[in-house]
Amino acid sequence: MSNLNLGNNIFYPTSSVTNEIVQSSFSATSSVQNRSMTTVLLSTAVFFIRDKCGNLQSVTGLLDAGSHSNIMTKGCANRLGLKQKKINVTISCLDITPMPVIKFVKAEVSNIDKSFNQEFEFLVIDKITE
Question: Is 6 left (phi over 0), alpha (psi -120 to 50) or beta?
Fold first, then answer.
């Protein structure tokens, strides 16, 4: 199960950060398809991941309490300069299509006031949705 979920009070979503919180925001996305499909509602949050230079970088993530994996896009991993290690697994993402994953990264995740700080493993994929 993913350790990132909306029930945790560890993340304080922000849209702009300097030395203080300038603006707060929260967003939710829902996806409704035909009758045979179920409705999916996923929330987003802004949190911080330490880059290869040790600086905290702001990232936006989907919060999926039902997920068993943490996922990061290749673009995000590259922007952060995280070392990508080899792995060979297949996962099903939001559209249920099986997807091979060949890389993963370890990343230190933090909230804005740094009262939460933990290392997570993220599977690296090209993109989250179509």
Answer: alpha
